[in-house]
Design brief:
Blueprint: E1 10-13, E2 19-21, E3 26-29, H1 34-41, E4 53-58, E5 67-71, E6 75-80, H2 83-96, E7 111-113, E8 116-120, E9 126-132, H3 140-152, E10 157-161, E11 163-164, E12 167-168, H4 177-180, E13 184-185, E14 188-189, E15 198-199, E16 203-204, H5 209-221, E17 225-229, H6 237-242, H7 274-290, E18 295-297, H8 306-310, H9 312-321, H10 326-342, E19 347-351, E20 374-377, H11 382-389, E21 393-396, H12 399-402, E22 418-419, H13 424-428, E23 446-453, H14 461-468, H15 471-480, H16 491-509, E24 531-532
Parallel strand pairs: 3-4, 4-6, 9-10, 9-23, 10-17, 18-19, 19-20, 20-21, 21-23, 22-24
Antiparallel strand pairs: 1-8, 2-7, 5-6, 5-8, 11-12, 13-16, 14-15
The structure holds acetamide (ACM).
Acetamide (ACM) binds near residues 301, 302, 351 and 378.
Length: about 525
């Protein structure tokens, strides 16, 4: 078997004459596949030699993301149920070549390919990666590079965590102080929240509307959807530093607030006032204009409700709406944006805390979430199970399995080690469908899975690479491939494919992954405390 990652559904190799791909090979794109041809042309061999044709076509008998890839002596034929399927076929084709085919230039064809027939399609429609650009900003070029990495692994959703306490990263023309004030901080805690180390360099950055349009278009060319997250009503200190009136001003003096540079949960919540709701609608109007994704993420995680308990404004809202308390108030707040988004043809997605106040239960005052609303289940499977049983879609991203900021080995050398150990093998054995949903009709509500990378301890693209790879390759295989039940999966074969080719592909792409033997000297961070558990 070839060393393709994620593993393909079927592959039949043949003896016979090889296809030779060089400058003498013609590229033929049937209508609807021109975009894939443009992308493929970017790395097709230019060296003299070869012949025959690389042909791209659509086959409406296939599911949209399914494809076939046939290599014979005189042609390579890629056909997919849609352009996305053809694109994934092209990704597989690249992996049939030597790893240096991932270099941006000087790949040294012509390439020789043995005859083979591959049929493939994804297990899940949502194969995601969340990038937190709020805690540490990632300049645009780094984001484009991440998109290329996702595409190479047939991942198709970039969940873009654009706002948090420590930074607001999206230009909002109507409310310019969000970036003038909210996009930078005077310094940053180094390491996790117990650390006493401090970096007094100002940190910041944000994406302009044109940056976002470029990122979204670049992703779309790679059949990746960018799902923006504007986190409300917690994780909003950067917004409050810019516009103090958005906060619970009857219980906290938000006028003195600065964008914090330290980590950990923050007590500030947005006020559930009409003015704050209107402000965020104005923010979301620009978000909708920039991001065509069907889903818009509104966060909702980790809201300590102390301020709402004490705020007369919040309590008046609870009374007026007949809500049972502060958790239900969050449900009400979420539902406001759910309906607002649904009226504009979009779907809300939020972290599983949005369910805590019973917003999916019968009899919730004023009614439940709309049918299209979905949940990112991060505190285990439970939120996802609750949502799926109530008929809502779910993305599984449980923190103990799929949080790539968590340490990947128990050794002393892991840089800024966080949380429980989540090895490559652990990730590989993750099962997206919990037992409560497996073999039930509600299983179809599990759209897929997503790995999340919070960036408190990853200050640069190189540090992100280390946390993310090779574990994201395992995430990709779990999301795409029709794997055996978790306990029976052939991890040794996955490792073989990594060793035979995939580490070399990552090298060719310039990814500073964690080698199986442990961190390289420059990947260590001696003396910087993490928070291992
Ligand atoms: C989260 O990890 N706070 C969603």
């Amino acid at each position: 078997m070839s060393a393709v990652i994620p593993r393909v559904v079927s592959e039949v190799s043949e003896d016979g004459e090889e296809f030779v791909w060089g400058s003498g090979t013609v590229l033929r794109a049937a209508p609807g596949t021109e975009g894939v041809a443009d992308w493929l042309q970017g790395w097709a061999p230019r060296e003299e030699g070869g012949g025959g044709a690389v042909e791209l076509s659509l086959d409406d008998g296939l599911a949209p993301e399914a494809y076939r890839l046939d290599v014979t002596a005189d042609r390579i034929h890629l056909t997919g149920g849609s352009a996305a399927g053809v694109f994934w076929a092209a990704q597989t084709l690249r992996q049939l070549l030597p790893p240096r085919a991932y270099r941006r230039a000087g790949a040294w064809g012509p390439w020789r390919l043995a005859p083979t027939h591959i049929g493939d399609e994804p297990r899940f429609a949502w194969r995601g990666f969340m990038l937190d650009v709020a805690r540490h900003f990632m300049p645009k070029d780094g984001v484009l590079r991440v998109i290329d990495q996702l595409a190479a692994h047939k991942l198709n959703v970039l969940h873009f965590h654009l706002t948090d306490d420590q930074g607001w990263r999206l230009e909002i023309a109507r409310h310019p102080r969000l970036t003038e004030v909210g996009a930078w901080r005077t310094g940053t805690q180094i390491g996790h929240r117990a650390s006493t180390l401090w970096d007094a360099r100002p940190h910041g950055g944000y994406y302009t509307h044109d940056d976002i349009r470029e990122i979204v278009a670049y992703a779309a060319e790679r059949h990746i959807t960018v799902v923006p997250e504007i986190d409300v009503p917690g994780h909003s200190s950067a917004a409050l530093a810019a516009y103090p009136e958005l906060g619970c001003t009857d219980v906290a003096d938000t006028t003195e607030l600065e964008v914090p540079g330290h980590w950990g949960m923050n007590l500030h919540l947005l006020s559930p006032s009409d003015a704050t709701l209107r402000f965020y609608e104005e923010v979301l109007e620009e978000v909708l204009d920039l991001f065509p994704a069907p889903f818009i993420h509104v966060g909702g995680d980790e809201c300590k409700k102390d301020q709402w308990r004490e705020s007369a404004t919040a309590q008046a809202r609870i009374t007026a709406e007949g809500l049972s308390g502060e958790d239900a108030l969050q449900g009400w707040f979420t539902r406001h944006f759910d309906r607002w988004l649904a009226a504009r043809g979009r779907r809300l997605i939020g972290w599983d805390e949005i369910l805590e106040g019973g917003v999916l239960e019968d009899g919730f005052p004023g009614g439940s979430l709309t049918e299209g609303a979905a949940v990112s289940s991060w505190r285990g499977y439970d939120g996802g199970v609750t949502a799926a049983r109530a008929g809502h879609d779910v993305v599984m991203c449980p923190e103990h399995e799929l949080y790539l900021d968590r340490r990947q080995d128990g050794g002393e050398d892991e840089p800024m080690p966080l949380g429980y150990v989540q090895t490559l093998r652990d990730v590989y054995h993750f099962e997206p469908l919990p037992p409560e949903l497996a073999d039930t009709p509600q299983a179809r509500h599990v759209l897929g899975i997503q790995a999340n990378l919070w960036s408190e301890c990853t200050e640069s693209p190189q540090r992100v690479d280390y946390q993310v790879f090779p574990r994201l390759a395992a995430v990709a295989e779990v999301a795409w491939s029709q794997l055996e039940p978790a306990a029976e999966r052939d991890f040794a074969d996955f490792e073989r494919r990594l060793e035979e080719a995939h580490y070399a592909r990552l090298d060719a792409m310039g990814v500073d992954y964690r080698p199986p033997s442990g961190p390289r000297p420059w990947q260590r961070r001696p003396g910087i405390p993490g928070r291992p558990r």
